[in-house]
Design goal:
Layout: H1 7-14, H2 24-44, H3 46-56, H4 68-83, E1 86-91, E2 98-99, E3 106-114, E4 125-133, H5 142-145, E5 154-160, E6 164-169, E7 174-180, E8 185-190, E9 201-203, H6 214-224, E10 235-236, H7 242-252, E11 255-258, H8 271-284, E12 288-290, E13 310-313, H9 315-327
Parallel strand pairs: 1-3, 9-10, 9-11
Antiparallel strand pairs: 1-2, 3-4, 4-5, 5-6, 6-7, 7-8, 11-13, 12-13
Helix pairs in contact: 1-2, 2-4, 6-9
The protein binds 2,5-anhydro-1,6-di-O-phosphono-D-glucitol (AHG) and manganese (II) ion (MN) (2 copies).
Length: 338
């Protein structure tokens, strides 16, 4: 008798939560899980691929070597095309939407490889995905993709780390599955993930400090002040892969901030396939996600590759950072004195 539950078993069981569902969403999640395993295999041998690439720039099938983020993009799109449940893919790697089957009901937005600058140095990377129901009756198009994050029916991420995990939500809590490479299955390892209400980790690229809004500067200073009651000074942890930074903070408690900066006046991270899916997961785990004042999931989406500042993580910590932003009357960049 199996002592663990696989992702496939779990998805089928959970289909009962959606009495009118016909199994399309379950099949879509299954397809994403399959592509994640293929990408995991390639991420794990990224160093070897470099060696092969230098030797002749072709792989064993005679195809040219590709950057892993392009490879990951192709794998996810191929799995979704093959599965037949997805009408449009919106991807970080494609300037325009990728139409698949006009018969299908669902839209998938994806960051196929998040933190890709970390691949060369063997540091954790991820995949982020978001699923919407299409709104058009026929001729699906960009307007099907430009829905508010609150309309997501499922979202999640894969972290290719010291172990590989798939974490997702369908709006009824968050569950995490760890890939057991010996059987090639994601197994339920973190049922009903709850994020600590507060924490002692702050994650922000402090190299950009001088370009941050005053409220963020003051919040960072707040994190660094000694205070026994709140466990300060907090610990600074920043990997540079949003998935990995948020996964750690989800488990341990913490805040992740990517604010507007002088050079990125709308922030860096993308609303459709980075901020919205991560916000859905974090909220479902009891955390909070805003742009410094407004809920991420309620933001209007007008462009496929739209950016947003993001303050995301443990509820109490995000509220505190928002209070600093409000007190400073943000969003401004005029105080370089701190
Ligand atoms: P991607 O690799 O998909 O382009 O995303 C990288 C993102 C995100 O994962 C990370 O948190 C952030 O960029 C890091 O940016 P900085 O190097 O500016 O801190
Ligand atoms: Mn990314
Ligand atoms: Mn990416």
């Amino acid at each position: 008798m199996l002592k663990f539950k696989t992702l496939g078993q779990f998805i089928i069981e959970k289909q009962a939560d959606f009495p009118f569902a016909k199994g399309e969403l379950s099949r879509l999640l299954r397809d994403i899980g399959i592509a994640a395993k293929i990408v995991n295999r390639e991420v794990n041998k990224a160093g070897l691929m470099d060696i092969l690439g230098q030797a002749g720039s072709t792989n064993i099938q005679g195809e040219s070597q590709q950057k892993l983020d392009v490879y990951a993009n192709e794998q996810f799109i191929a799995a979704l095309r093959c599965g037949g449940e997805c009408c449009i893919v919106a991807s970080e790697e494609n300037e325009d939407i990728v139409p698949l089957s006009d018969q299908a009901k669902y839209i998938v937005a994806i960051d196929p490889l998040d933190g890709s600058s970390n691949i060369d140095v063997n540091v954790a990377v991820g995949t982020i995905f978001s699923i919407y129901r299409r709104v058009s009756a026929s001729d699906c198009g960009l307007s099907d993709v430009l829905q508010k994050g609150s309309e997501q029916v499922a979202a999640g991420y894969v972290i290719y780390g010291s172990s590989t995990m798939l974490v997702y939500t369908t709006g009824k809590g968050v569950n995490g599955f760890t890939l057991d490479p010996s059987i090639g299955e994601f197994c339920l390892s973190h049922p009903n993930l709850q994020m600590p209400r507060t924490g002692t980790i702050y994650s922000v690229n402090e190299g950009n400090y001088v370009h941050f809004p005053t409220g963020v500067k003051q919040y960072i200073k707040y994190c660094q002040v000694e205070d026994q009651a709140t466990g300060r000074p907090y610990t600074s942890r920043y990997i540079g892969s949003m998935v990995a930074d948020l996964h750690r903070n989800l488990i341990k408690g913490g805040i992740f901030i990517y604010p507007v900066t002088a050079s990125a006046p709308n922030g860096k991270l993308r609303l459709v396939y980075e901020c919205n899916p991560m916000a859905f997961v974090i909220e479902q785990a009891g955390g909070r996600a805003t742009n410094g004042s407004d809920r991420i999931l309620d933001l209007e989406v007008t462009e496929l590759h739209q950016r947003s500042p993001v303050f995301i993580g443990s509820d109490a910590m995000v509220r505190r950072a928002e209070a600093f932003m409000a007190a400073a009357g943000e969003l401004t960049f005029n105080d370089y004195s701190l």
